[in-house]
Amino acid sequence: MQIQTAHGPAEATLDGPDRPAFLLVLTHGSNGGVDAPDLLAVRDVALGLDGAVARVVQPFRLAGRRAPGSALKQDEAWLEAVAVLRERFGDVPLVQGGRSNGARVACRTAAAAGAAGVVALAFPLHPPGKPEKTRADELRGAGVEVLVVNGDRDPFGIPDAADAAQVAVLPGERHDLSKDPGEVGRAVEPWLRRWAASPARAAR
C-alpha cells in the first residue's frame, strides 16, 4: 500500500492476519531495501507468532535517493506512515524496527509512535573508524525496551550491554547480517513472543 506523507509517498508491504496479536513495522537501511535477509528473517518469525508485519520503504528510497537527508523530516514521514498502519490494524501492540539507519529511526521515534518496543538490527553505533562519534544516546533515549542484534565483525561498532534492554552479538556476522539470517530470527523470537500472548489478545 502507498502512504502519503508530508515528505513524499512511502510504501508498505503487508503480511499476516488482519486481526494480529501485534503489529511489527520494519524498515531498511539508508542504501538498502525491505527484502534484506535479516528483515525477512524477522518478518517470518513475527508471522509465526501471529503478528502482522509491515515493511516500509521510506520516501527518500522510493524517490531513488541513497541518503536519508534530514533526520527530522525522515522521522516525521516515518511517524505519519506508522499512524496509518496503526489505524488499519487497530489497538494491538506496536513494535517497530529496522536495520542500520532504519534502526536509528525506530529508536528516535519509538516514544512518539507509541511503540511497545524496538528491534534494532545492525545498529550503527558510530561511523566506521570513528568510535568517538557514538550514537548510543539514540538507543538509550528510545523510551522503550530495545533489542539490538549486531554482528561481532560490524565496522559500525557494537552497542554495549548497558545501551539497550538486550544486546545479541552474532559471531562471524558483519553489518549486513547475511551470513546466517536464521540466527537473526532466532535471536529476535523470544523477545517478540511476549506480544504474541498479550492480555489484549487474550481478551478478544
How would you explain this protein's 3D organization?
This is Alpha/beta hydrolase. InterPro entries: AB_hydrolase_fold, KANL3/Tex30_Abhydrolase, NSL3/Tex30. It comes from Actinomadura physcomitrii. This protein has 204 residues and is of the alpha/beta class. The protein has a single domain, classed as Alpha/Beta hydrolase fold, catalytic domain (Rossmann fold, 3-Layer(aba) Sandwich), CATH 3.40.50.1820. Helices cover 36% and strands 23% of the residues. The protein has seven helices and eight strands, in the order βββαβααβαβαββαα. Strands 1-2-4-3-5-6-7-8 form an eight-stranded mixed beta sheet, with helices on both faces. The protein starts with a strand and ends with a helix.
Structure summary:
With 204 residues, this protein is an alpha/beta fold. It contains seven helices and eight strands; from the N terminus they run βββαβααβαβαββαα. Helix 1 links the parallel strand 3 and strand 4.
